[in-house]
Amino acid sequence: MKKARELRWGETPFDRMSHEDLLIHAKRMFLALTSLHSVVSQHKVSDEHFNKLNLPYWSNDGMGGKALNLSKRTLGKIKRGYNSDNIYRMFFRYAKDVLFEPDENASRWQVCDHCKMFLGTTDTACCFCKNRLRKLTMADLMNEPSS
Ligand SMILES: [Zn+2]
Question: Domains in the chain: how many in total?
């Protein structure tokens, strides 16, 4: 991906990305947006509860209010058809391991194809059947919309 300062008129950072790289980039942005929405929402609730102030920061023209409204508007369209449990499992619990390099010494989600289970572990073998675990892939995270 080209850096912003290297771009010429009419170019975007995404012009030369493969379909797979573009998809992973979009998923990273979704994860970041979901995290931003969660943090900003908690911050607003905390401000209203503890400070009892009507701060301009949270108005529709304030930075907090704008960030909250834009993230809510963007996520609203994406969340349609999925419940919060689907989203939690997909993006916070598993997709993070696929999209970002893991922290050193942290356990990762791995898959046992024999038991059909995801296991959060640093082990290389399944604790139930002793089969070799494989890395989680994006294909494992495909989800069905909730009914
Ligand atoms: Zn197993």
Answer: 2
How much distance in Å is there from the Cα of 115 to the middle of ligand 1?
4
Angle between helices 19-46 and 63-79 (to 10 degrees): 130
Residue 144: band (very low, low, confident or very high) from pLDDT cuts 50, 70, 90? low
**25-63 pLDDT tens trace:** 888 888 888 889 999 999 999 888 877 778 889 999 999
All residues with CB under 5 Å from ion ligand 1: 112, 114-115, 126, 128-129, 131
Residues 28 and 69 in one domain: yes
Q: Does any domain span residue 147?
A: no
CA distance 95 to 134: 15
- Residue 115 in any domain: the answer is yes
Residue 120 Cα to ligand 1 midpoint, Å, equals: 13
